[in-house]
Amino acid sequence: MSQTQIESKPPAVDTPPAVFVRMAAVVRMTGLGRSTIYRLMAEHEFPSPVRLAKRAVAWRRIDLEQWSAGRPTVSH
Questions:
Q1: Is residue 29 part of a domain?
Q2: What is the Cα gyration radius of the chain?
Q3: Phi, psi (5° rounding) for residue 41?
Q4: How is the beta sheet containing 56-60 ordered, strand by strand?
Q5: Is residue 2 part of a domain?
Q6: Which of 1, 21, 31, 32 is geometrically suited to a Cys-Cys bond with 36, CB 3.0 to 4.6 A?
Q7: What is the pTM of this model?
Q8: Does residue 11 fall inside a structural domain?
Q9: What angle do CA 54, 27, 32 make, to 5 degrees?
Q10: In sequence order, what are the residues at sequence separation of 6 or more whose Cβ sits closer than 8 angstroms to the Cβ of residue 14?
Q11: Which domain holds residue 58?
Q12: Distance from C-alpha of 30 to C-alpha of 68, rounded to nearest angstrom
């Protein structure tokens, strides 16, 4: 009798690629100023950026979306 080998492949994980957002886009997305963003980061109330290069940082879009979704809504 011959044995048939079955190749097992790891299950496919559908994780979208990370999308990074630079400071100018973060300001537009959140409506916050640069100093407010850095103050909130210091208070651990805003997502931390990811270092892209020696002098370049960006934020993960998913982190910003989760942060935004967790913010209280105000009705005027």
A1: yes
A2: 20
A3: -65, -45
A4: 20-21, 56-60, 50-53
A5: no
A6: 32
A7: 0.73
A8: no
A9: 120
A10: none
A11: 20-68
A12: 8
Q: Report the C-alpha gap between 57 and 50 in whole angstroms.
A: 5
Q: What's the total number of domains in the chain?
A: 1
Q: Which amino acid is at 15?
A: T
Mean pLDDT of the chain: 88
Query: Per residue in 60-76, pLDDT tens?
Result: 999 999 999 998 888 87
Report DSSP letters for the chain, one per residue.
--PPP----PPP---PPP-EE-HHHHHHHH---HHHHHHHHHTT-SPPPEEEETTEEEEEHHHHHHHHHTSPP---
Q: Which two tokens stand for residue 33?
A: 């100023």
